[in-house]
Amino acid sequence: MITEEERRAAADALLKAEIERKPIIQPSQTYPNLELEDAYRIQALWAEARVAKGARIVGHKIGLTSRAMQMASKMTEPDYGCILDDALYNDGAQIRADLFIKPRLEVELAFVMGEDLVGPGTRIYDVMRATEFVVPALEIIDYRTEVPRAITDTIADNAAFGALVVGGRIIRPMDIDIRWVGATLSKNGIIEESGVSAAIMGHPAAGIAWLVNKLHAVGGGLKKGQIVLAGSFTRPVDIAKGDVIQADYGPVGSIGVSFV
């Protein structure tokens, strides 16, 4: 464990890295005793600083939802971060590439909550019942720390959240078997990745159930109207200025975005 003063120093350093678009030395290198609890506290302090500057927390993102990614990170469960309102974009947006350090893009689904949801004991069915609708979403991930990164570095860095793009059709959660929503991801007209949402822990709502129970352990939960990114079902694709991205979700629509 590290001290609260050290946690605040780490949060300030990450905030500076975000503003200046320059990665910092990994917190785990600066503070060798850094633990998961410290990392989530650093994330919370960073979020408090962003809110103090005018941003609003509008939801959460979940990462490390695939078994392969968990094993690579030596984790047995996902991680999570927060979504800020100043990082939300709609289908067709032109996004400045220089807002990020080294951005990559992932294909996901976003759940919008129709009611509050708290743990413990939350299950997939509870998530589906509490969800107002689901929409196709692209997450831009961006790391504010140098490599190699420990899982504590990623968590402290708001789980590498950069931005969120939503589009496509609104899906009522019980109208289709949401496990079989699939998508292809194209960059500059060439398909780079494809996947199906069942790759997210067997069901895209599984990670959200995990998140609700995890938040309960620290006195939190999901609120009506919040957005939750369920996790990626493709590998991340590098993006840069000039790239044009198209994600085709078949019958549930598509998302297009360009980087300028």
UniProtKB/TrEMBL annotation:
User: Record's GO cellular component, any one?
Assistant: cytoplasm
Q: Which SUPFAM superfamilies would you find in this protein's record?
A: FAH
* Coiled-coil residues: none
Sequence ranges assigned to domain Fumarylacetoacetase-like C-terminal in this UniProt record: 74-255
What keywords does the record list, in alphabetical order? Lyase
An example of a GO molecular function for this protein is:
2-oxopent-4-enoate hydratase activity
Per the record, the domain of life is Bacteria
Q: Which Pfam families does this chain map to?
A: FAA_hydrolase
PANTHER family in the record: 2-KETO-4-PENTENOATE HYDRATASE (PTHR30143:SF0), ACID HYDRATASE (PTHR30143)
Write the protein's name: 2-oxo-hepta-3-ene-1,7-dioate hydratase
To which species is this protein native? Sinorhizobium alkalisoli
The taxonomic lineage of its organism, from the top, reads: Bacteria, Pseudomonadati, Pseudomonadota, Alphaproteobacteria, Hyphomicrobiales
